[in-house]
Every structure is written in C-alpha cells, then in structure tokens.
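pinging the channel bc i need a second pair of eyes. not urgent but kinda urgent?? the chain im working w is below, pasted from the shared doc
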Amino acid sequence: MLSDDERNRSARFRFEKGRQRFVVARGALRELLGRYLGTDPGQIRFTYNAFGKPELHPDFGDRLKFNLAHSGDLALIAIARDADVGVDVECIEGRGESSYADVAQNFFSATEVDALRRVPRDLYDQAFFSCWTMKEAYVKGCGAGLTIPLTSFAVPISTDLAPAAVRCGRWSLFALRPAPGYVGAVAVSAALRMTIFRGRHICRGPHSEEWAQ
C-alpha cells in the first residue's frame, strides 16, 4: 500500500531491521488514516511542508491532522481533528551510560536544567526523556522542526508519566509511557480529551486487530 516515494525511502535504510520498521510504521499510519477517511489506505497521498512535516493531500480535506514517530520496535501515531498535532517516542532501555545532563545544558531552557538538577539520580533518565519528548512533540506539531530552538520554551519536569495534560501556550502536552522501556509525548494545539489505543498486527488484515483502550 506504500507510495513509490515511501518505497524509495525504505530502500535507503542501511539495515533490514530499519527498513522493516519504516515500512510497518508507514503501513500502520495509512491503515489508520484510511479508517478515519473511509478510503483505501493505498490511495492516500501526502504533501510535505518546507520543513518536511507530512500532511494529507488537499484532496482529502484539511480537518484531519496526524504525526508519526518511532524508536526501537515501537511506533507512536497521533491523529486529531481540527487541531495540529505532534508526537515523539524514545526507547530508554539499553542505552548505556550517557551524560544527559550535558545534553540538557545545551538544548533545554535554564528553567528545565535547574529543575532536572533536583531530580533523584534513579529517576533522572525518565525525567530527561519526558522533557525531551514533550519538547520534540511540540516542535513537530508546530511544523517548523528545530528552527524553533529547544531552549526558547520550557515544559514541566516530571517523573509522573500519567497522560495528564500540561499547557504550553495554546498547546496541550501529554507525557506518556506507551510501553515498558519507552517514553513518549503528544502535543495538540487545543485543549481536549485524549484516548490512547495500543495495537498489534493492524496491517495484517481486517480480522487480526488487537486493541486495548
């Protein structure tokens, strides 16, 4: 069901596992969008803004917005009506030792860096990636990528990954734990109620879905 452009992009992956992850993630995105639109997933077309953010082709209207991120073996997809949306996910297991404090010093606001210094060591990585994914989800939702400096705005530092909304201007930000060993976030340009679904095998056929809300 993928387009020629998507097939070409998948072929550029150096390793087979990366190629498979890309194909499955894009196939899942098409399957979900097809259900919302009542359209054959293979017929969906995308356009890309100047910063590479994908959007539905104007032929499919402009009310449905989406964003996709993947890390490790997990893909996270956000879909919203009448609101811009961004999403990010990071696998935090098996990374080994890393100086996240140095990364925070370079890419986080002074308020966030100060708050991270007060986080207990055993919770630091979780708090760091919760902050990182919320910031990434926000800039992806805005559609301008890293032309928005990550140091130019602040999000709350928390080790609580329950899907409770925090506000960043007109945006609602949700920190998530989408699966064990992963941290994620969703940013939506509205105040709203969010429903979370976890699924497997959604691309294998109409009778193989496994959903849990």
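so Residues 201-213 have pLDDT under 50 and may be disordered. and The helical segments are 4-11, 16-37, 100-107, 110-117, 121-142. — does that match what u expected or am i reading it wrong
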